[in-house]
Amino acid sequence: MFLSVFEIFKVGIGPSSSHTMGPMVAAARFLERLRASPFRAKGLRASLHGSLAFTGVGHATDRAVILGLAGFRPDDYDAAKAEAALERIRAEKAVAPEGLGPLAFDPAADLRFDYGPPLPGHANGLVLMATDAQGDVILQETYYSIGGGFVLTEAELAEARGGREAPQAPVPYPFRTAAEMLAMAEASGLSIAEMKRRNELSVMPREALERGLARIWEVMNACIDRGLAAEGILPGGLKVRRRAKAIHQKLLAERGLNLTAPHTINDWMSVYAMAVNEENAAGGQVVTAPTNGAAGVVPAVLRYWLDHVPGAGPAGIGDFLLTAAAIGGIVKHNASISGAECGCQAEVGSASAMAAAGLCAVMGGTPMQVENAAEIALEHHLGMTCDPVKGLVQIPCIERNGLGAIKAVSAASLALRGDGTHFVPLDAAIETMRQTGADMHEKYKETSLGGLAVNVPNC
Predict the structure, then answer these.
(1) Which helix (H) or strand (E) holds 376?
(2) pLDDT at residue 119 above 90?
(3) Which domains does the chain have, with CATH numbers?
(4) Which residues contact 377 (CB under 8 A, 6 or more apart)?
């Protein structure tokens, strides 16, 4: 099993990797299939199912599908061009993706929200269709957005669940579980980051890897800075006010005055995470880490380390990200990073485990301590539901990232105080998360039909 660091960390747009990025990627894939098809399409249709229907408007899923069918992609998304395109599409009732010409598509009539039972493959399902001049469907594909911006067709999902995944190029350290990762680390004498680096280098040049890692941190850090500088009301109707800038200014004013309690460091961790998730809620550029809803945790902990921990420096950024990605890959392979599948334990819980592992690694932790840090962080998110108010990635998501960052730092610190031996293996925590997600009622899995979503006024 090999998931690249650039599959775990992907540059995209807010507010959701599974509800915004995934559907846009699915639309792009459908256009590619249509370009290769012998059929001459005249129009397009789409239907959203399960969680994509129930919280689709709050997560901008409708916008993502419209723009995706017009040729937009998450990795090079231009907000100004997108807004202009949306106005044009709604007025002309057509899209014009490159290489396919004008295709009839009226968002009001051709994009349907299906509030019935979800499609059988996953809670996040969408069906894309191409039609002929008479409106008959000539090409159709079902896609599942499985979390973190990952998208599978119905056939691909069936193959993956049947253990028939497409063969991959061999990598030197193909660990699928935390136990295998630790065994390979002990046998090789390498750190988790170095094993992950050598896996990456087996499929890409060193220059591309280093450039890509630098790009990931550049986007993460820029997102923090934008969030710390912005103010105003977030879109969506809840009238949630951005708070990161005001908190940050207070923290800066208190520096050096010897008036603050030691626990104020928690506010720094929180404000970095909140800055990212306020940007995400506003539809800004973020990095999946491993999802958009949990995008603030990893960059917050990395920024905390760089700005507040003596001895930290840019040379460790790559090791932090590679270690975090190794943990994220194990979680995704053996359980889920999708809130619609396993609740927020799969999003913020996974992110906290990744951040804890990364911080432990750059602070000199052994592979056993790193695995312990990840386990502590994940264990204490088990059972966390995904119940966004009004279907928006705002309440409780923004603050939840701050608390996930604090837990990650605490978990890394506890692990570093020990020798790496511990009672609950990370693999057991991951399996527990998977089972808990399977048992969790659907209303607590990103449908906004339970929890805070129904106990807090939506206006």
Answers:
(1) helix 367-379
(2) yes
(3) 17-161 (3.30.1330.90), 178-455 (1.10.4100)
(4) 349, 352, 353, 355, 356, 357, 404, 407, 408, 411, 412
Output the pLDDT for position 72: 95
Q: Residue 159 to residues 32, 121, 435: CA-CA distances in angstroms?
A: 21, 11, 21
Residue 273 Cα to chain centre, angstroms: 14
414: left (phi over 0), alpha (psi -120 to 50) or beta: alpha
**Runs of H (alpha helix) within 44-106:** 51-54, 61-69, 79-92
E strand or H helix at 216, and its extent?
helix 206-229
Q: What is the pTM of this model?
A: 0.92
Please state the length of the chain: 459
Which two tokens mark 357? 């592992």
For 182, the token pair is 């630790």
- Short-list 118, 174, 107, 171, CA closest to 142: 118
Residues 145 and 171: beta-carbon distance below 8 Å: no
- pLDDT confidence tier of residue 165, bands split at 50, 70 and 90: low
Quote the tokens at residue 111: 């994009």
Task: Provide the sign of the torsion angle of the four alpha carbons 402, 54, 440, 160, taken in this order.
Answer: negative
Nearest to 123, CA basis, from 449, 459, 451: 449
Residue 362, amino acid: V
